[in-house]
Amino acid sequence: MAARVSELMVDPVNGGVLKQIEYEVRALAATITSSIKHTDQRLTASHAINTAIKEIGDFENWMKTMEFV
After folding, report:
1. Which of 3, 43, 48, 58 is most exposed, with the fewest beta carbons within 10 Å of its own?
2. Cβ atoms of 63 and 69 closer than 8 Å
């Protein structure tokens, strides 16, 4: 009998805790998804910058080869 009373008292608390955990997990998942999206955007921008710098270097080498500099 005491175990059943204890169970009836603890179940609502556990349910609330589980709902809070589920809420936190969903919020964390959304934050992770957003971070992944921003990281992908930064990688794309970084790649574009690296490509531009390489092209500038290629052009500079071409100018030196052609003796324009």
Report:
1. 3
2. yes
Rounded to an integer, the average pLDDT of 52-60 is 91
Classified as helix, coil or strand, 1 is coil
Determine the distance from the C-alpha atom of residue 8 to the mean position of all C-alpha atoms in its chain, rounded to a whole number: 41
CA 20/CA 59 separation, integer angstroms: 58
**Sheet strands (E) in the chain:** none
Contact status, residue 55 vs residue 61, Cβ threshold 8 Å: no
Please write the tens of the pLDDT for every residue from 22-37: 999 999 999 999 999 9
Residue 51 in tokens: 């490509």
